[in-house]
Structure formats: structure tokens, C-alpha cells
């Protein structure tokens, strides 16, 4: 076992700032939707828009960072070990079995995580941004677009994507507590360091 810097400084900043912004978007978004009233519609809408733009800027930086550092390879899906990891999360974790995946600096995410993050990045994220931007710029829609697309439909798809993101976050937080100790998998995302058997 050796102590290795597995999550770089920008990676940790991006993760936690993204989480903060997503929680802000969910909180204000569901208030805009009418689920509750805390800030008031106007203030919730203003903060929702500010958080959305901040997250767009953050993601642009994150995309640039992933491309230039080669970290995008961490999300390439693989079938190797997928069944074993799935079996562990469904059964093994409740029977005291050892996690079948060995994390390295070149392969931080197990096969199931890769699929989940890829789904988040390629399915949930594009839908929520496309519908969100369409909703935000509704008054600027060209006549051709307004003729085939209804604002209500855009809002419903946007809300459905928000619920999908909420489900993803709940699952993500739950999975983050499934280490040997409650904070075992969370601590490395704070400090950057993790004890690894093999760093190749």
C-alpha cells in the first residue's frame, strides 16, 4: 500500500463546486416549479439562472482540463469486471465481501462508475442544458421553432431531467458511503490522497 495523490486540486475543486451549484439549482428549480416557497419565485429564478451560468463556465473549464490532461480516458466504458462490480454492489456489500475492483491513478473509476458517469455526462446533462437554455431564451425563439415546440413540453422535459439528476446524486452519495468506513471514499476527494495497492 502506498499513499498516492489520486484526485488533483482542480479535480477536487471542480467536484465540490459542481456539487454546490447542482444543489443550488435543484433547490431553486423545485421552488420555481412550485414544490415549496422559501425564497420567492423571483429570487429563486434569479439565483437559478446565476447558478446555471456558473455551472456552464465550470463545465467548460472541466472539459478543457479533461481533454488537455487526458483524464477523459477515465470515463471510457469497459465490460471487464462489470459483472463482478455489479454483483458486489447488489450482494457482496451486504455480506462483507471484498470490493473486486482495484483503483489506480490511470483507472480511478470501476466499470459501473464509468457507465454511470458516462450516462450523466452524455444523457442527463445535455438534456437539462438544452431544455434549460431553451426555457431561458424562450422570448428569442425563432418563429420556426416556436411553431413546433411548446414551452410546456420544454419545462416538463427539463423537470424530468432534474429528477434524473436528483436520483443520480442520491445514488452517488449512497455509493460514496460504501467504503470500509463511512468516510473512506469521501476523504480522498477532500485531501486528494488515497492508499493504493498498485499505482500503475
Terminal-residue CA separation = 13 Å
Strand order of the largest sheet: 1-2
How would you characterize the largest beta sheet?
2 strands, antiparallel
User: What is the string of SSEs from the N terminus onward?
Assistant: EHHHHHHHE
Percent of residues in beta strands?
Answer: under 5%
CATH architecture: Up-down Bundle
CATH H-level superfamily title:
Transmembrane di-heme cytochromes, Chain C
Evaluate the radius of gyration.
19 Å
Provide a descriptive summary of the structure in words.
The protein has one domain: Fumarate Reductase Cytochrome B subunit (Up-down Bundle), CATH 1.20.950.20. By secondary structure, the protein is mainly α. The two termini are 13 Å apart. The chain has a two-stranded antiparallel sheet. It contains seven helices and two strands. It has helices spanning 9-32, 41-69, 82-95, 111-136, 143-148, 151-176, 188-191, and strands at residues 2-5, 193-196. The protein is elongated and about 60 Å long. It is 64% helix and 4% strand.
Could you give the topology of this structure?
Elements: E1 2-5, H1 9-32, H2 41-69, H3 82-95, H4 111-136, H5 143-148, H6 151-176, H7 188-191, E2 193-196
Antiparallel strand pairs: 1-2
Concise overview:
By secondary structure, the chain is mainly alpha-helical.
Any key phrases for this structure?
200 residues; mainly alpha; Fumarate Reductase Cytochrome B subunit; two-stranded antiparallel sheet; 4% strand
Amino acid at each position: 500500500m502506498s499513499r498516492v495523490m489520486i484526485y488533483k486540486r482542480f479535480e477536487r475543486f471542480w467536484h465540490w463546486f459542481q456539487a454546490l451549484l447542482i444543489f443550488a439549482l435543484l433547490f431553486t428549480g423545485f421552488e420555481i416549479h412550485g414544490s415549496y416557497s422559501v425564497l420567492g419565485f423571483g429570487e429563486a429564478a434569479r439565483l437559478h439562472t446565476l447558478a446555471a451560468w456558473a455551472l456552464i463556465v465550470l463545465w467548460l473549464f472541466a472539459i478543457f482540463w479533461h481533454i488537455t490532461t487526458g483524464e477523459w480516458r477515465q470515463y471510457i466504458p469497459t465490460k471487464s469486471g462489470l459483472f463482478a462490480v455489479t454483483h458486489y454492489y447488489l450482494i457482496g456489500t451486504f455480506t462483507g465481501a471484498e470490493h473486486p475492483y482495484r483503483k489506480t491513478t490511470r483507472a480511478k473509476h470501476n466499470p459501473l462508475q464509468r457507465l454511470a458517469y458516462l450516462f450523466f455526462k452524455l444523457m442527463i446533462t445535455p438534456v437539462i442544458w438544452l431544455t434549460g437554455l431553451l426555457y431561458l431564451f424562450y422570448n428569442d425563439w425563432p418563429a420556426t421553432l416556436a411553431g413546433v415546440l411548446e414551452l410546456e413540453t420544454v419545462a416538463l422535459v427539463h423537470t424530468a431531467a432534474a429528477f434524473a439528476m436528483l436520483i443520480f446524486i442520491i445514488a452517488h452519495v449512497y455509493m460514496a458511503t460504501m467504503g470500509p468506513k463511512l468516510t473512506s471514499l469521501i476523504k480522498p476527494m477532500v485531501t486528494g490522497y488515497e492508499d493504493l495497492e498498485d499505482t500503475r
